[in-house]
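Priority: medium. Attachment 1 of 2:
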């Protein structure tokens, strides 16, 4: 645990933002937890609990819920970005309009996704807006519900400079939240984003009642696909075999807390994409990431059969059962393959 107490800002008052704010406060830091919904923030201030997204977890005294962005950023030396990926650019513009970050503020992306159209990672978007601020990433198998109650958790903090990663490691680390460091920021973010595609597919398996054999095969082949696409997008293979790769993939595909797995399970049980989207309180990042991942695979000529079938389901209305059949009926091949086999010729 860091002996230095800092003023931190958590941008995003959902379940994960609240859990991270709670973690920092328990580590002795002062935290402003910002959310767009003034009514929700007022309720959190009054009840000292995020009843909407993380019920049953009391907010420590050192957390100040705020809806005023300018106030949230005052004197902040650490800013955690924990809003949905589709809102990141708008948030960056809002921060700039509110006087921006202090030059010494460290910005940490805690959002897992890829931008539609550009395929950019969240840290790339943040770095393009805040040229003078250090930008880092926190990722790994870490559900808010378990982190908030102190269940043993291990994550990775990624930054281009090792000294920055080590500094953040001291801020976040405690007896129940173990942090590792990495300089492969790209691999960490790609693992955290792409695994959500496969979590929806795993949920579809659950919804269809297909059993453990099917799900184990799906997740194993999904890892191979994640490595194939992730390395072409700039990540390192070893990273995908670590906490922010296979670790995050496993927890998201199997956990009852996973909103992406839950999204897929409802699809497998016969609900439409619109029905599930309109009735889920929290965002399933795997939905927009499927489109971004599919576009990247097409552009790079990478064979990504699971991602392709998920794209057909989510954006073209393909029945989940038909998608599974098409996956099973692909041409037989050897399991042991080079990482760059399956890359299609670029047109």
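Attachment 2 of 2:
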């Amino acid at each position: 645990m860091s002996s230095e107490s800092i003023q931190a800002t958590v941008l995003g008052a959902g379940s994960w933002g609240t859990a991270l704010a709670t973690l920092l406060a328990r580590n002795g830091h002062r935290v402003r937890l910002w959310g767009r919904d003034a009514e929700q923030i007022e309720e959190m201030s009054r009840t000292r609990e995020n009843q909407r997204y993380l019920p049953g977890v009391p907010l420590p005294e050192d957390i100040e819920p705020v809806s005023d962005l300018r106030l949230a950023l005052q004197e902040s030396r650490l800013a955690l970005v924990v809003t949905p990926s589709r809102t990141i650019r708008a948030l960056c513009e809002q921060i700039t309009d509110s006087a921006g970050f202090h030059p010494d503020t460290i910005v940490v992306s805690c959002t897992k996704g890829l931008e539609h159209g550009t395929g950019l990672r969240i840290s790339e978007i943040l770095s393009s807006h805040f040229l003078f601020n250090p930008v880092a990433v926190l990722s790994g198998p870490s559900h808010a519900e378990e982190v908030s109650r102190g269940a043993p958790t291990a994550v990775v903090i990624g930054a281009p400079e090792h000294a920055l990663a080590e500094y953040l490691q001291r801020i976040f680390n405690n007896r129940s939240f173990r942090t590792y460091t990495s300089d492969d920021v790209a691999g960490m973010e790609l693992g955290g984003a792409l695994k959500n595609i496969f979590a929806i597919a795993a949920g579809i398996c659950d919804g269809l009642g297909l059993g453990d054999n099917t799900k184990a095969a799906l997740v194993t082949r999904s890892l191979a696909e994640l490595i194939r696409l992730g390395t072409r997008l700039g990540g390192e293979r070893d990273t995908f075999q670590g906490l922010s790769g296979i670790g995050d993939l496993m927890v998201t595909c199997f956990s009852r807390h996973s909103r992406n797995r839950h999204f897929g399970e409802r699809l497998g049980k016969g609900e439409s994409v619109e029905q599930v989207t309109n009735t889920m309180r929290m965002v399933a990042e795997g939905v927009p990431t499927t489109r971004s991942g599919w576009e990247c695979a097409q552009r790079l000529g990478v064979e990504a059969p699971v991602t392709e079938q998920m794209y057909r389901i989510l954006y073209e209305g393909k029945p989940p059962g038909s998608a599974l059949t098409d996956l099973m009926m692909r041409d037989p091949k050897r399991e042991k393959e080079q990482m760059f086999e399956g890359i299609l010729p670029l047109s």
